[in-house]
UniProtKB/TrEMBL annotation:
One Gene Ontology term, aspect cellular component: extracellular space
A molecular function GO annotation: cytokine activity
Protein name: Interferon lambda-3-like
Matches recorded under InterPro entries: IFN-lambda_sf, INF_lambda
Subcellular location: Secreted
Alphabetical list of Gene3D superfamilies matching this protein: Interferon lambda (1.20.1250.60)
Annotated Pfam families: IL28A (PF15177)
GO biological process: cell surface receptor signaling pathway via JAK-STAT; defense response to virus; innate immune response; positive regulation of immune response
UniProt keywords, alphabetically: Antiviral defense, Cytokine, Secreted, Signal
Family: Belongs to the lambda interferon family.
PANTHER family xref list: INTERFERON LAMBDA-2-RELATED (PTHR31943:SF1), INTERLEUKIN-28 AND 29 (PTHR31943)
Length: 200
């Protein structure tokens, strides 16, 4: 996907892929074929977050890690292994995985805030930022409710992994995985999608 460096979306190749969401729904998605005046597709603005936003995420991550120490969860597997790198996917597949990754992150962090009132304030701004990023990303992905081609290979494996995580992982281990992946999500995965085909 080629993104306009000024924030607009250039025409992109349409790839029909199934989006496996954390709720288990399997809508089919394609990247929007954007015209010069297409509205809402401004993902390029997230190639880097502001220092203030990153600091808010740092405070949230520190608070989450302290909370996890009290829970003493014993986790044997990694939801996001060290080999997790969106550059391994086709350019047009990356936003689909990022959408699922963001949706799962939001679901887990919101559950953490609901379960621990001490996390509510420190998570407020990061959750707001993540919701904004997800809404902007979805403006560049247009759901299609028709039967299209199913995802294959690494795309299928990664989407399936994200979909199954809430069923296979304990809440504590899921929270730990999302917490430790938070800055990779913000500084690598998001940056890669925002950079389009310049991310190699």
């Amino acid at each position: 996907m080629k993104l306009d460096m000024t924030g607009g979306c250039m025409p992109v190749l349409v790839l029909m892929v199934a989006v496996l969401t954390v709720t288990g729904a399997v809508p089919v998605a394609r990247l929007r074929r954007a015209l010069p005046d297409a509205r809402g597709c401004h993902i390029a603005q997230f190639k880097s977050l502001s220092p203030q936003e990153l600091q808010a995420f740092k405070r949230a991550k520190d608070a989450l890690e302290e909370s996890l120490l009290l829970k003493d969860s014993k986790c044997r597997s990694r939801l996001f292994p060290r080999t997790w790198d969106l550059r391994q996917l086709q350019v047009t597949e990356r936003p689909v995985v990022l959408e699922a990754e963001l949706a799962l992150t939001l679901k887990v962090l919101e559950a953490a805030a609901d379960a621990d009132s001490a996390l509510v304030d420190v998570l407020d701004q990061p959750l707001h930022t993540l919701h904004h990023i997800l809404s902007q990303l979805r403006a560049c992905i247009q759901p299609q409710l028709t039967a299209g081609s199913r995802p294959r290979g690494r795309l299928h494996h990664w989407l399936h992994r994200l979909q199954e995580a809430p069923k296979k992982e304990s809440p504590g281990c899921l929270e730990a995985s999302v917490t430790f992946n938070l800055f990779r999500l913000l500084t690598r995965d998001l940056k890669c999608v925002a950079s389009g085909d310049l991310c190699v």
